[in-house]
Amino acid sequence: MKRTDRIGRSSATPSRPLRFACVIVCMLLIRPAASSSPAFPAHPALSGAQDPSFKSSSAELVVLPIVVKDKQGRYVPDLTRERFVVFDNSRRMPIDFFTAEDTPATIGLIIDGSGSMGPKLGEVIASTLRFAQLSNPDDEIFAIRFNEDIHEVITTDRFLHAGDMAALETAMGSLVAEGRTALYDALIAGLDHIARGTRPRRALIVISDGGDNASRTPLEVVLSRARKSNVMLYTVGIFDQDDRDKNLGVLKSLARETGGERFLPASPGALLQVCERIAREIRSGYTVAFSPPDRDGQFHRVRVAIDPPIPHADIRTRPGYFAASAPARSLP
Predict the structure, then answer these.
(1) Domain enclosing residue 306, as ranges
(2) What is the CATH number of the domain that holds 221?
(3) How far is the C-alpha of 310 from the C-alpha of 197, rounded, in Å?
(4) Parallel, antiparallel, or unpaired for β 150-152 and 140-146?
(5) How far apart are the C-alpha atoms of 100 and 96, rounded to whole Å?
(6) What is the 3-state secondary structure (H, E, C) of 90-128?
(7) Residues 6+ positions from 111 with CB-CB distance below 8 Å
(8) Which residue, 25, 164, 249, 317, is most buried by CB atoms nearer than 10 A?
(9) Which of helix, strand or coil describes residue 249?
(10) Cβ contacts of residue 94 below 8 Å, gap of 6+?
(11) Whether 274 and 303 share a structural domain
(12) CA-CA distance, 51 to 102, in Å (whole number)?
């Protein structure tokens, strides 16, 4: 395999099989209210063909991607704005923005190509391609392959469209398994890359066994960055029973700390189904936004409810956000 710098372009080296051990982390990412990132307008008017705007002269809003499922685990469609109730540190907040539209997203595929992976590359490629097939065709997609180094898989452009399956399949065919595992460095690289996207909704998918033995970045830094970036992570791990590199605790932490969900499918078919489920979830969720009540620089707990309630409903969103700090007063 051709060696490159720590972050570089991967060569089209013929791939050898990866071991069937994968984790998918899906981050539904929208820029934080605590940064200088773009924001929703306070009261936008949307038609079905319009994307939500993230830029406005008004104050930035706290954005909550929300998934609602019934007791059978089915997505609950057609809920109206009036049904959603949002609490910020137990205070009920007025909703400034709401949409249930399937808006295009920017999506990253972060794929473990370390030697610890093994002979199941075909299942990994099939699952990620199936994910793209079920995505909005106008989604922006990029891919990063990591071992102890970080390499961009898509070399023709910064992003592909999800509908460009031939180009995506060619890019995925460049995967090769060797070396150690720098998962945490790859997550930071994915967050950096996704910030260049142009779509209002953002998701990150990471495929790995959850282990890390080569990163310069500690897990605590990754979790802090994810929280401040308003990211939701969905983790899916499939491992051999004797896999010494697996780390179920990391997968659980990544999901729990960001309002996502962990999956542990037991077969290639189950992995494919999980990828299909994640793709549907990105397209089936709701987006709610509200004005932050304080500029105190602190972490604010968020809770979302449905009124009237849906019996035994599962309502999932990120657990909170970091509020912006009030600007320092200049001395007279």
Answers:
(1) 62-100+298-322
(2) 3.40.50.410
(3) 35
(4) antiparallel
(5) 14
(6) CEEECCCEEECCCCCEEEEEEEECCCCCCCCHHHHHHHH
(7) 124, 128, 143, 144, 145, 146, 153, 172, 175, 206, 207, 208
(8) 25
(9) helix
(10) 290, 291
(11) no
(12) 9
Q: Are residues 230 and 159 in the same domain?
A: yes
Integer Cα distance of 96 and 62 in angstroms: 10
Regarding whether 117 and 129 lie in a shared domain, the answer is yes
d(CA 143, CA 154): 6
- Looking at the structure, do residues 150 and 239 belong to the same domain, yes or no? yes
For residue range 158-173, list pLDDT tens digits in order: 999 999 999 999 998 8
The number of distinct structural domains making up the chain is: 2
Residue 246: both structure tokens together: 């697996």
Mean pLDDT of the chain: 79
Q: What angle do CA 89, 92, 96 make, to 5 degrees?
A: 110
Q: Detail the DSSP E strand segments found in the chain.
A: 7-9, 22-23, 28-29, 62-69, 84-88, 91-93, 97-99, 105-112, 140-146, 150-152, 160-161, 201-207, 231-232, 234-238, 261-263, 286-290, 299-306, 314-316, 320-322
Sign (positive or negative) of CA dihedral 248, 250, 252, 254 = negative
Residue 23 predicted with pLDDT over 60: no
Shared domain check, 87 and 11: no
Q: Are residues 130 and 206 in the same domain?
A: yes
pLDDT tens-digit map of 31-82: 434 433 333 333 333 333 344 443 333 357 888 889 999 999 999 999 999 9
Asked whether residue 223 is domain-assigned, the answer is yes
Position 223 confidence tier, pLDDT thresholds 50, 70, 90: confident
Same domain, 209 and 311: no
**Whole-angstrom Cα distance, residue 54 to residue 30?**
9
Q: Which amino acid is at 321?
A: Y
Tokens coding 18: 């990866």
Residue 2 domain flag: no
Check whether residue 75 and residue 109 sit in a common domain: no
Considering the domain boundaries, does residue 330 fall inside one?
no
49, part of any domain:
no
